[in-house]
Amino acid sequence: MRTLLIHGARSALRAAPGKTDRLSRWVLALAERSHPNVAATALANKMARVAWAMLRHGTNYEPEGVVA
Question: Which 3 state secondary structure label does DSSP give 20?
């Protein structure tokens, strides 16, 4: 599961330039301040926590609700 989250985060990091949502802006700023692998790991961690919260509360994904 961890490997899949990391691969997904790397893909999202690669696709983030040009996007204006808060999560993309956050991960791009983090990648500029630190190593891209650190940013990908942080994004994977955030994605895991969002997925857990969605399962826990029985809600759908709401991009505006993700705090970066």
Answer: coil
Each residue's pLDDT, cut to its tens digit, for the chain (68 residues) gives 999 999 999 999 999 999 998 999 999 999 999 999 999 999 999 999 999 999 999 999 887 777 76
Tokens, residue 41: 């790991």
C-alpha to C-alpha distance for 19 and 55, rounded to whole angstroms = 26
C-alpha triplet 21, 26, 29: angle, nearest 5° = 125
Contact between 50 and 66 (Cβ < 8 Å):
yes
Its pTM surpasses 0.70? yes
